[in-house]
Design goal:
heterodimer, A: alpha+beta, Histidine-containing Protein, Chain: A, five-stranded antiparallel sheet, 5 helices, 19% strand, globular, B: alpha/beta, Mannitol-specific EII, Chain A
């Protein structure tokens, strides 16, 4: 599935590998967080599992991955903000989707937290989420 | 994991009357009590746990579908049921749309994989607009069950 965005031939595709490290896997709440994060970026974002490629901006699609703890997934982003998008998404996985599920932080606090994290993401992710750039040769 | 692995046919409610989030959750949990899938004494505790999960973020995942759920130590295997609201219920969904199709899941805390595979099946089937539409229009529990069985059979074949 695509986001319907018309691809620009100079758009770069970046990809990185993420690992699901929380005990409960990529269940509804983390899938919601990942889809929301993906929706913040203009780039097309796709997750590639064992046998399927799904839209990272769709919670339904992400849930079809049934990604348990320890699952490796490839995230591919294509667009003007591909690298930044991957950094932000890699971060969510690195911090186990901030899965402090017993806490009840407000939406505003959460948004601020996410902003803060995405601001510092480049530094964190250079070590954990190596992104590989390739020139999109599609015409 | 197929629908028939976790949906109790006796607990299917094709025309729920509740018109609030908690009302729907209570009615569906009661249906699992009536089907003897969960103990009467655990009902309040399960409703409370599902509502607590909703507080973290609605399980109304869009397209008129919600998947209220919780883990609960009183069940030894994943149990679930399906309910349909003709009018739709405000579930504070991610897309703001009222919810007509509900899949409620109660899973044992030590089986996260089963929960994921149930969500996987529900999500995969619900991406099919035709399936959602026929399910919403189903007349009785047996018709809902037949649609779920058909979906199971198709997912095995594909």
């Amino acid at each position: 599935m695509t986001t319907g965005r018309t691809e620009n031939p100079i758009d770069e595709t970046h990809s990185c590998e993420v690992i699901v490290t929380n005990e409960q896997g990529l269940h509804a709440r983390p899938a919601d967080l990942v889809a929301r994060e993906a929706q913040r970026w203009e780039s097309r974002i796709e997750f590639i599992g064992k046998s399927q490629r799904v839209d990272g901006k769709s919670i339904l699609d992400l849930l079809t991955l049934a990604a348990e703890e320890g699952t490796h997934l490839v995230v591919e982003a294509t667009g003007p903000d591909a690298r930044e998008a991957l950094d932000a998404i890699g971060n969510l996985f690195n911090k186990k989707f901030a899965s402090n599920e017993s806490s009840t932080i407000t939406n505003t606090e959460k948004t601020q937290q996410e902003r803060h994290v995405s601001g510092s993401s480049a530094r964190i992710n250079t070590a954990t989420c190596e992104s590989v750039a390739e020139r999109n040769t599609n015409s | 994991m197929k629908f028939s692995d976790f949906v109790s046919v006796e607990a299917i409610r094709p025309s729920i009357v509740a018109d609030s989030k908690e009302g729907v959750i209570r009615e569906m949990t009661q249906s699992l009590v009536d089907a003897e899938k969960i103990a009467t004494s655990e009902m309040d505790s399960i409703v409370k746990a599902i509502m607590k999960r909703e507080d973290l973020g609605s399980t109304g995942i869009g397209r008129g579908v919600a998947v209220p759920h919780t883990k609960h130590p009183s069940v030894s295997r994943l149990v679930g049921t399906v309910a349909i609201s003709e009018r739709g219920v405000d579930f504070e969904s991610l897309d703001g749309e009222p919810v007509q199709l509900f899949f409620l899941l109660v899973s044992p805390p030590d089986r996260p994989g089963d929960h994921l595979r149930a969500l996987e099946n529900i999500s995969r089937q619900l991406r099919d607009d035709a399936f959602c539409k026929t399910l919403k229009e189903a007349g009785g529990p047996q018709e809902v069950w037949r649609l779920l069985e058909d979906a199971d059979a198709q997912s095995i074949a594909s």
